[in-house]
Amino acid sequence: KGNGTIGNIYSMGLALQALEATRKFYAPRKWDCAQAFSVVYAHDYQQPMAIAQVLPALVGRSYLDVAGLDCTATKEMSPSRQLPLSPMLGTQGVPRAPIQVHYSITNTLQGKHFHYSTSVTVPSGSTLLRVMEAARNEKPDIFSFQTEQTFWGPYVTSIHGLAGSEDDRTYWQFLSAGNALDEGVGTYKPHDGEHIQAIFSTY
């Protein structure tokens, strides 16, 4: 993408590892290394899987380097400095101003079509999952949903009783201003007045 993103924020770690590991042998086209790394530096990674994939690239390594590591040489070494803490840590007791988020669910693919919208109020800094929970708490017969836990965080499997299917190649896609979200519901944080759409889609 023009802003330096390769795929999406989840694929950046492995993409940077691959490009760094193969830059001497395979260069289909020039890529802006500094711009790509600036995307990574600017993102507040929360999920362990994403962090595990981006850290090797940040220290100029890839998973391929594991085969050649000399563990005895680093056995007695200790970290020279601690990594900075996430800015969100330690702020749980601080009151956060409420924000309003518009949330809609739409199905025009299978069975009885539906479209429902609502507006919910949540503390600023809340994740999309919290917005969905607030909508479900207000109207459980309409905004019910189910998730399953993955290495990348919670994955929405069904909304309003309608589940995605690998056989049908269907899933729930989340968009803001017509653009697909580049984070999952467990980490994406809507802003005040934002309209989040959940649309039953095919891939």
What attributes does this structure have?
single chain, 21% helix, three-stranded antiparallel beta sheet, 8 strands, alpha+beta, Ferric Hydroxamate Uptake Protein, Chain A, domain 1, five-stranded mixed beta sheet, 203 residues, elongated
Written description of the protein model:
Belongs to the eukaryotic cobalamin transport proteins family. Keywords: Cobalt, Cobalt transport, Ion transport, Secreted, Signal, Transport. Pfam families: Cobalamin_bind, DUF4430. It is found in: Secreted. Residues 125-197 form the Transcobalamin-like C-terminal domain. The chain is an alpha+beta fold and 203 residues long. It has two domains: 11-67, no CATH class; 98-202, Ferric Hydroxamate Uptake Protein, Chain A, domain 1, CATH 2.170.130.30. It has helices at 12-22, 33-42, 48-58, 128-138, and strands spanning 98-107, 114-123, 145-150, 153-159, 162-163, 170-176, 179-180, 195-202. The strands form two sheets. The protein has a five-stranded mixed β-sheet with strand order 2-1-8-6-7, with helices on one face. A three-stranded antiparallel β-sheet has the order 3-4-5, covered by helices on one side. A hairpin with a 2-residue loop joins strand 4 (153-159) and strand 5. The longest helix is centred in the N-terminal third of the chain and has 11 residues, at 12-22. The radius of gyration is 20 Å and the shape is elongated.
